[in-house]
């Protein structure tokens, strides 16, 4: 895991001060700033902790910031803290906190690379997606084809599509003439396949290599 500096950023010191040392976490609403510091001090030297509160009631929103002295300490906290904190690097302070909180809530509900335990009902974009998808005239199925200009590694592709619950099998094939990648993916339900296509069609994996994900006829009535 590494963090790249944007060309638009200022000096390296500015980047460290603004973007690489501050993390954003989801916490119990009962936490105080001392509780937050106590939980995260094991990962490095903390400059400050703050809890986001409702401006009207003064109650905690269940979100907070922890700023470390070094980027490596912030990175360690993100990697090693309990997954329930959903720790990520905080946006620069010049982005409104309301906008960042909204983005964070949306993104934190997505499946993580560490597992696929989140049910669809916790993913806002999926809850509203099913109705929108019915407007598409493309016949859907539980089976997908995945095409890539680079060959696939079975275990890696399986892990990628297993982020969506219900994966039944992943069959990787290779064209010996073109060395391109081709795989057939099948899920237990059409809903899972729809979501996988929605999320992974056009996804760059590995970076720079865009995946093409299409529905394959599986012999079932697609109108279901």
The first-level CATH class of the domain at 17-89 is given as Alpha Beta
Count the helices. How many?
8
Strand order of the largest sheet: 2-3-1-4
Total number of strands: 8
- The proportion of residues in beta strands is 15-25%
Structural notes for this entry:
The structure is a single chain. Helix content is 30%, strand content 22%. With 224 residues, the protein is an alpha+beta fold. Among the domains are: 17-89, Alpha-Beta Plaits (2-Layer Sandwich), CATH 3.30.70.330; 143-215, 2-Layer Sandwich (Alpha-Beta Plaits). A four-stranded antiparallel β-sheet has the order 2-3-1-4. Strands 6-7-5-8 form a four-stranded antiparallel β-sheet, covered by helices on one side. The protein is elongated, with a radius of gyration of 21 Å.
What would you say about this model in short?
The chain has 224 residues and is an alpha+beta fold. Among the domains are: 17-89, Alpha-Beta Plaits (2-Layer Sandwich), CATH 3.30.70; 143-215, RRM (RNA recognition motif) domain (Alpha-Beta Plaits, 2-Layer Sandwich), CATH 3.30.70.330.
